[in-house]
Every structure is written in structure tokens, then in C-alpha cells.
Design goal:
The structure holds 2 protein chains of 2 kinds. Chain A is an alpha+beta fold. Chain A has 2 domains: about 70 residues, Ubiquitin-like (UB roll) (Roll); about 70 residues, DNA polymerase, domain 1 (Orthogonal Bundle), CATH 1.10.150. Chain A has 6 helices and 5 strands; from the N terminus they run E-E-H-E-E-E-H-H-H-H-H. In chain A, strand 1 and strand 2 form a beta hairpin. The longest helix of chain A has 17 residues. By secondary structure, chain B is of the alpha+beta class. Chain B folds into 3 domains: about 170 residues, 2-Layer Sandwich (Aldehyde Oxidoreductase, domain 4), CATH 3.30.365; about 140 residues, Aldehyde Oxidoreductase, domain 4 (2-Layer Sandwich); about 325 residues, Aldehyde oxidase/xanthine dehydrogenase, molybdopterin binding domain (Aldehyde Oxidoreductase, domain 4, 2-Layer Sandwich). Helix content of chain B is about 30%, strand content about 20%. Chain B is built from 21 helices and 25 strands. A 7-stranded mixed sheet of chain B has the order 10-11-8-18-15-16-17, with helices on both faces. In chain B, about 60% of the residues are buried. Classes of the chains: A alpha+beta, B alpha+beta. Chains A and B meet through helix 1, helix 3, helix 4, helix 5 and helix 6 of A and helix 9, helix 11 and helix 20 of B. The structure holds FE2/S2 (inorganic) cluster (2 copies). One FE2/S2 (inorganic) cluster sits at the interface of chains A and B.
């Protein structure tokens, strides 16, 4: 089976029913997407397929119908994506375990809605869980990121 | 067995700690532990003190308290960087090896029945004894909001001493007097453009004696401390490059999971793994003390195979249902079950004539820690050596467990403490690490990464115990609060935790009354009694421990009395409070929330206060009744940490603690109906604070207290009472039991 992750083609020999998350993490060694709940509830495993946010723990690899982008493909420590820059500016992460999913969700959302209201942000981010309670800073960072993406 | 090991195995806390600690004598207390880094130096590395390692690329600071999200890695590194004169942005931080040299001298003081507001001789002696005990026991432990207070002097001293030996080494090399040299961001500098990088001096410096009791910088000269610093772990955490325990990858690694008896502590009588064994990708099924494990080619294979194992579990030794557990608590309000009475002022039994009596019963449920990273560990046993990778708060205990399981000596065991995706107290337990070591013993020399499913995590948390309080009070005829009498019943968290080390603890468990008995209010007749309920399930420390329930019991009931007296909840708390720093946090939230200003119809404002872990913290919550239910509009928190080292990080922890407290008060509980496992199996059953429910938050950090304190926990206890008091103000409905969504709807 072929999948494209962060612009790189991979040939993987796995059970077609294996969730994308485990193909990424255990087969390809791409560990940015995290396992939190396994039932599409928490958002820690969020990746993009094309530009859509997808919960990779609950998507079988055989159903992946486009190029996958993980947090590693969004930006890098030396070249942060505007959303990551905003996260850095607001020092959002505590334990950080949810943040790859938060950032991937925010990046996909801001690409669609460049000028979000507070309600838009809550609705878009509403299904991403953060056990550490970083929500107030995520709200601020999403606003900052929107600004940065407009300027970019 | 070293004296540290013996002492560690007799985990003494509370009043026994004082006696135990002093018995060892002062001579040993004064002797420093060996530097554990010396045995592990690679070619070209040197070490100066247990906190500093230098190689040609620069300085690594050992930050021996695990980074769980609380930001300690950065602040601890800043303590050394401040005094050693390092460029903090260039510092590498590392958790370091398990070692008694990293003993926590503050954590055992927390277990003593000494109020934080007590500055008398006996109280100071007891706290000092805590440091002695911590050192003897070699308690290398993260917890109790102690990382910063414990490290504040120790790690600055280490940095200052290292800086001095750098200067001395440079002086010797250059043949000048040390007094002519100074330092600048990782270099010794002097006249005539002399500048030598620490890296180039390290080998010489390591030969010099490390001075003790070096003078520290005054606060006005701080460069990093007192200022917000970018966290060292921030960029890795937002780019997916931070290695959490669950991300460990090793050559030829097996992936694993386990299934254990949901009735904690009881094992499997029997199991049938025929189908699991046959699944493609399964390498081996391994019997464990608690159940069985699967070794496989991926985590997903392991998860599915484990689902196919049919177990015949041993019966639970504990009551089956929440109702039976609650009944056991209710039966504990007896003289026989009385555990402590640290406060007994005046006479609560005989009130004045015509006083109004008020009584109420309060309850809190079992709660799961459920950090977002499910419990996991990696172990690799080969060539008579064991390596372990795990997010643990108790590294030296983990080594003891590994020794017991493998029979290997200390020096054959290496523990790599990883970053952790949250804890909230869960990683004080090491069941998941023991299971992983058991699996590694059966893995034929291959590394094993074991990951729990979220369902396994919920079923095998050692939760915060259920608790109950019976509160009584009187309002005198003149409208003053005349008495407050609280009785709290819980199973003992401390007894349960140490029992898993095969130990018992003498004396009362301070956690049963913490956050209740030690509050700074002047009430003439004031009594707080702890009752020890039987262990209805194995339980553990949960962010803010006893204060997480008692803060709610004490403060909400105080609110009831104040309302009954017809007084303003904020003004009366301030008037009753005799402790200056505590009063000031109340005044601060009053100002921040514009207390007393009118709110729209259907809205209400509540204040909550709790002094825990030495930190007075006050919070105000505003709620509004909407068509979809109660909405939390805004929340304010003020806390006093004595000395604020990193304001932005303190804000993160204080607001995070408040949100954690609010979310669990709103919609979290573990209930039991059968089989020993809670009914809640994944986050939909246990949502805590959801993004769209989170109020706007504002915090303020004060510095009126006389000693430096940690902020990881104190933001939690005042949150539930502030919310319940706000709901009362908005709706007239008094909530005396968590979770509140049993009684009201939240939007
Ligand atoms: S792990 Fe996929 S949504 Fe939680
Ligand atoms: S930062 Fe810890 S779960 Fe979000």
C-alpha cells in the first residue's frame, strides 16, 4: 500500500484496517501525532489529509485518500508555521501532549476561516481536549495566528 | 543496602518523620551525597556538582524533577543559569539519573501537621526536620508542589559554586588573581580582552574543590529569575519533536500492551489466549502478576490481541458498588475511626443562647488522574543490563522495583526519565513500569514498549478517593459566626500508596484534613476532625490531594454560614482572615473581579478560598443561567507564592489548576457498579473542562509570603467552592456534592 506523508512516498505492508495513527507511529516512526483516546474524541492524533483535519486513530489506512500532513510536516523547529509561531509567542504548551492535535486543528481551521470570531474559535477547537487547561492561551494564540497568516 | 535504601523503604512521614529523621543524627545530614554523574561521564565530559555537566558543546543542567507540564525544567535550569552566568537559551536540560543526591527536602515536611501559617519555633523545627528526613531517605521524588521550594537554594548554590571554580581555574591558567576576573554568559572574562569559554575551562575546574555556602546574587541583580522565560521544552512540544515516553523507538523493538484485573490488586485466576496467540503479528502472550501482556509487531496488533484474551479474574477484595463504598465512609464518623484533630479552638459543643445552628453534609467522588498520555514504558533487558524509559515521579523507587523483579544489581539498571504528557499525581505509581519490566524479561533481549489503552488507563488508575464531610456551625444572636465544626472522612491516601511498597505508616494522615484544618480564619469555636475510612479501593494522590475535597467542604460551608449571617461573602472572609498574605489574595480577586459591581439578572458571582501547600489562593467565578444551562463567564485567581520566579509560568499553572478544579467539579466522577472497575471507560464519560465551556481567565501572583512556594496544586482547591458559591448566588441552589452536573446543567 502507498501513502504520502509530509511529501514523502511510503510503501507500507500492513493490515489495511490498521488505523493511520499506528501506521504513522509504529510503522513509519512519525511520532508527532499522539494516541490519547483511540475513539476520535480527544483530538491528540489529528493530522491533515489534503487540508482537512482528520482523527488518525479512527481512520483505517486503506481509507486514506490523499496526502497526509503531520505536525512534523507543518513546520520545524527552524522553520515554524505561523500557527506554531503564535503558540511559541503565547507559550501555550504545558505537558504539550495535546498540542500537536491542537495546532493541526487550528491550522486547518484558519486556512478556511481567516478572520474568526471568539465563537468560531470555540466551535472549531471545541472537540480538542487539553487535560492541562491551556484553553485560554490557545484562544489567544489562534487569534495571533490568524493575524500572522493574513500578513504572510 | 545503603542507609538511603533502608530509609527509603521505611517511608516515614507525618509526626514519625520528625522522630525518625533526628534519630540518624546531624553528622550524616551535613555530608553531601556523592555526585551520581561521575560514574556516567562520557569521554570529554566533566561534572561540577550533581546539577552541572559540561562537554565541548556547552553546559547541561540536571533538572531532577520530572517535567510533567508544570514548567519545572525551565525554572530549575534558570536557577543554575542565573548564578553560573549562563545563556539560558543555550542550556540543555536533562532529568538526570535516579539518585539520593537529588533528594527532595520539602516533600516530607508537607506531611507534617504544621500549618503553613505557623511561623513559631516548633513549626520551623518540624519543617527543618522534613529536610533532614528527605535527605536521609534519599527521596528523589517530584510532587507536592515542592520542586521550586526544594531547589531554590540548592540549585542556585550549585550554579554559584560552579561559577567560582570557573573563575579560579581561569585565574590559575592565566596566572592572575581571581579577583581581577568576572563572568559573562558562559565565559570567564578579564582585562586585556581575556575571554575563555566555560567549556575550555571545565577540565581544570573539575579538579578544584567545589566551595560550599557561596554568596548568592541579590534579587535586584537577577537576570532570569523574576522574569518570564521561554520554556526550554516549548519549541519541541509544538513541533512534534519532544520525545515523550510513548515516543521511544529502539532497534528491533516489540510493541506491547497488558490487560490486568479491573479489580485492582487481584490477579487472573485463569485466561485463554488461544485466539490472541494466533493473530498475525503477535509474538508472545506473557502471564503477568496482574493479568497478561501481549508482545507484538505494533501497538495496534497488541491492543486487538489483548481484546481476544478471555480472563477469569480473581474476585475484588473491595466493596463492589459506589453505594457500599459511600456507606463505609458514612460509618466512619466515629470515635474509633478518628484519625486526627489538629484544630480544636474554643468550645464547638456548647453554643450561646439563641444561636442559629446550621448543619450540612458534603460529598466528593472518586476521580481519575487521566493525563492525556496513557501510561506507558519501555524496557530493554540484554547482556545482564536493564534500561528503562518512563515518565516517573519516583525514579529511585523504580530502580528498587526493577532490582526486585530482575535480581540485577543497582549498577546494571539505567532509568531514563522521559518527558511526560501530564500526570496530576498518576506517575507517583509505577505499576505500568513493573509490568513493562515483566514483559522485557520474556522478550529475548529485544526492547519492549508497553502502552495502555485509554480504557486500561481508566480501569487501573489509582483514583482520588471518595470523601465526605459533616459540617456544623452557629450564627450568634449578634449575627457573628460563632462556631465552625468540620468532620472529614476519607480512606487514607498515604496508607494506600505506601502499602504498595509493602509498608505501613504510623500516625495520622494529614491529607485527610489538609485544606480544612489549617485555614487562616478567626472563628472563636473552631474544630476540625479527621476520620479514617477503610480502604474501599486502592487510592492515590491527585493534584492537590486532600485539599481537593476539603477546600470544597470548608469553604462552601463557610459560605453557607456567611450567607446565613446575612453578610457579604467576600467582605466577611476578608474580615475573618487573620493571615496577611491570605487576606491580600482575597482583596486581589475582589479587585480583579470588581466584586460588588452589579451583574445582569440570572448571573452570580462566587468566591472560593483555600490555603494549601503553603499557598493562599482565592478565586472568583461568574456564572450566567442561559437557555442551554449554566455558563461560566469569567474566572479570576490570585495566589501568593512568596517569591515569583517565572510570572508567565506561574500564570499557566494557576489558571491550569483552576480550570482543572472547575472541570472536574462540573462533570467528573468515577462510579462503581460491579467487578471493581469504574463505569467510566474513556473521556466521553469523563470530559472535565471542555474547550467551549472554559471561562475567560485572569490571574495574579502575589509575593507577600515569607518563603518561596510552588504553584502546581494550590490553584485547584478553591475552584469548586468558587463555582458552587457562584451557582448559589445565581440560582439560590446550594450544591454540596460533586460533580455538579448531577444537579444542574452546564451550557
Ligand atoms: S487519539 Fe484520536 S481522537 Fe483521541
Ligand atoms: S498541554 Fe497537557 S494536555 Fe494539553
Amino acid at each position: 500500500m502507498k501513502i504520502v506523508v509530509n511529501g514523502i512516498d511510503h510503501e507500507v505492508d500492513v493490515d489495511p484496517e490498521m488505523p493511520l495513527l499506528w501506521v504513522l507511529r509504529d510503522v513509519l516512526g512519525i511520532t508527532g501525532p499522539k494516541f490519547g483516546c483511540g475513539i476520535a474524541y480527544c483530538g491528540a492524533c489529528t493530522v491533515h489529509i489534503y487540508a482537512q483535519p482528520v482523527r488518525s486513530c479512527s481512520l483505517q489506512v486503506q481509507d486514506v485518500d490523499g496526502p497526509v500532513t503531520t505536525i512534523e510536516g507543518l513546520g520545524s523547529p527552524d522553520g515554524l508555521h505561523p500557527v506554531q509561531e503564535a503558540w511559541q509567542e503565547h507559550q501555550v504548551a504545558q505537558c504539550g501532549y495535546c498540542q500537536a492535535g491542537q495546532i493541526m486543528t487550528a491550522a486547518a481551521f484558519l486556512a478556511e476561516v481567516p478572520d474568526p470570531t471568539d465563537e468560531d474559535v470555540d466551535a472549531a477547537m471545541g472537540n480538542n481536549l487539553c487535560r492541562c487547561g491551556t484553553y485560554p492561551r490557545i484562544r489567544d494564540a489562534v487569534k495571533t495566528a490568524a493575524q500572522k497568516m493574513k500578513e504572510a | 543496602m545503603s542507609i538511603g535504601t533502608i530509609a527509603r523503604r521505611t517511608f516515614l512521614i507525618g509526626s514519625a518523620a520528625t522522630a525518625g529523621g533526628v534519630a540518624f543524627g546531624v553528622w550524616r545530614y551535613r555530608t553531601p551525597y556523592d555526585n551520581p554523574l561521575e560514574d556516567q561521564l562520557a569521554e570529554g565530559e566533566v561534572t561540577l556538582t550533581p546539577y552541572i555537566k559540561i562537554d565541548t558543546d556547552g553546559v547541561t543542567v540536571i533538572t531532577p524533577r520530572i517535567e510533567l507540564g508544570q514548567g519545572t525544567m525551565t525554572t530549575l535550569a534558570a536557577l543554575v543559569a542565573e548564578e553560573m552566568d549562563l545563556d539560558l537559551a543555550q542550556v540543555r536540560a536533562d532529568h538526570g539519573p535516579p539518585s539520593a543526591a537529588y533528594y527532595n527536602g520539602v516533600v516530607s515536611a508537607e506531611g507534617m501537621p504544621v500549618a503553613a501559617t505557623d511561623t513559631g519555633f516548633m513549626a520551623r523545627t518540624a519543617r527543618g526536620a522534613g529536610d533532614v528526613v528527605g535527605k536521609f531517605m534519599g527521596l528523589h521524588i517530584t510532587g507536592g508542589s515542592t520542586s521550586i521550594p526544594d531547589a531554590f537554594d540548592k540549585m542556585r548554590q550549585a550554579g554559584a559554586a560552579a561559577r567560582l571554580v570557573m573563575i579560579r581555574a581561569a585565574a590559575e591558567r592565566e596566572g592572575v588573581i581571581a579577583g581581577s576576573l568576572w563572568t559573562e554568559l558562559g565565559h570567564v572574562v578579564g582585562p586585556n580582552d581575556l575571554t575563555i569559554a566555560y567549556e575550555d575551562l571545565a577540565a581544570d575546574a573539575a579538579l578544584l574543590d567545589i566551595p560550599r555556602d557561596v554568596e548568592l546574587k541579590s534579587r535586584s541583580n537577577w537576570r532570569y529569575l523574576g522574569q518570564s522565560q521561554p520554556r526550554l521544552d516549548m519549541v519541541p512540544k509544538i513541533t512534534g519533536t519532544a520525545p515523550f515516553g510513548i515516543d521511544i523507538r529502539l532497534p528491533d523493538m516489540l510493541y506491547a500492551t497488558v490487560r490486568s484485573n479491573p479489580a485492582q490488586g487481584a490477579g487472573a485466576l485463569n485466561y485463554d489466549a488461544t485466539d490472541a496467540q494466533e493473530m498475525k503479528g503477535v509474538v508472545k502472550i506473557v502471564p503477568l502478576k496482574t493479568g497478561a501482556g501481549v508482545l507484538a509487531d505494533t501497538t495496534w496488533t497488541a491492543f486487538r490481541a489483548a481484546d481476544l484474551i478471555e480472563f477469569d479474574w480473581a474476585p475484588s477484595p473491595y466493596p463492589e458498588t459506589s453505594e457500599d463504598m459511600a456507606a463505609a465512609l458514612a460509618d466512619s464518623f466515629t470515635d474509633e475511626a478518628r484519625d486526627s484533630r489538629f484544630r480544636d479552638d474554643g468550645d464547638v459543643e456548647n453554643g450561646s443562647a439563641e444561636a442559629t445552628e446550621i448543619e450540612a453534609e458534603y460529598k466528593v467522588p472518586f476521580l481519575a488522574h487521566a493525563p492525556l498520555e496513557p501510561m506507558n514504558a519501555t524496557a530493554w533487558l540484554r547482556d545482564g543490563k536493564l534500561d528503562i524509559w518512563a515518565g516517573t515521579q519516583v525514579p529511585t523507587y523504580v530502580v528498587d522495583v526493577a532490582k526486585d523483579l530482575t535480581g540485577l544489581p543497582d549498577d546494571a539498571i539505567t532509568l531514563h526519565t522521559t518527558l511526560a504528557g501530564g500526570s496530576f499525581g498518576r506517575r507517583l505509581e509505577f505499576d505500568f513500569i513493573a509490568q513493562t519490566i515483566e514483559l522485557a524479561l520474556e522478550a529475548d533481549g529485544r526492547p519492549v514498549k508497553m502502552t495502555w489503552t485509554r480504557e486500561e488507563d481508566f480501569a487501573h488508575d489509582y483514583p482520588r478517593p471518595m470523601g465526605m464531610a459533616r459540617m456544623k456551625g452557629r450564627i450568634a444572636a449578634d449575627g457573628q459566626i460563632e462556631s465552625l465544626d468540620g468532620a472529614f472522612a476519607y480512606p487514607s491516601v498515604v496508607a494506600s500508596q505506601v502499602s504498595r511498597l509493602g509498608l505501613t505508616v504510623p500516625g495520622p494522615d494529614v491529607a485527610i484534613v489538609a485544606g480544612g484544618w489549617d485555614q487562616p480564619f478567626s472563628i472563636p469555636n473552631y474544630r476540625m476532625t479527621g476520620h479514617r475510612a477503610p480502604e474501599v479501593a486502592p487510592v492515590s494522590s491527585w493534584r492537590s490531594v486532600g485539599a481537593s475535597g476539603n477546600g470544597f467542604f470548608h469553604d462552601c460551608f463557610l459560605d453557607e454560614l456567611i450567607h446565613a449571617a446575612g453578610l457579604d461573602p467576600m467582605e466577611e472572609r476578608i474580615r475573618l482572615c487573620w493571615h496577611d498574605p491570605s487576606r491580600k489574595v482575597l482583596e486581589a480577586v475582589a479587585e480583579m473581579s470588581n466584586w460588588g459591581s452589579p451583574l445582569p439578572e440570572g448571573s452570580g458571582r462566587g468566591v472560593g478560598f483555600c490555603l494549601s501547600f503553603g499557598v493562599p489562593c482565592a478565586e472568583v467565578v461568574e456564572v450566567t443561567q442561559t437557555e442551554r444551562g449554566l455558563k461560566l463567564d469569567r474566572a479570576f485567581a490570585a495566589a501568593d507564592v512568596g517569591t515569583a520566579l517565572d510570572p508567565r509560568n506561574l500564570d499557566a499553572q494557576l489558571s491550569g489548576g483552576m480550570i482543572f478544579g472547575l472541570g472536574h467539579a462540573m462533570n467528573c466522577q468515577l462510579t462503581y457498579t460491579a467487578g471493581g472497575a469504574p463505569d467510566q471507560i474513556n473521556f466521553p464519560d469523563y470530559p472535565a473542562m471542555r474547550f467551549d465551556q472554559c471561562p475567560k481567565v485572569e490571574t495574579r501572583i502575589l509575593e507577600n509570603g515569607d518563603t518561596i512556594k510552588g504553584i502546581g496544586e494550590p490553584g485547584v482547591p478553591p475552584a469548586a467552592p468558587a463555582l458552587a458559591n457562584a451557582i448559589f448566588a445565581a440560582t439560590g441552589q446550594r450544591l454540596r456534592e460533586m460533580p455538579f452536573d448531577k444537579f444542574v446543567d452546564f451550557a
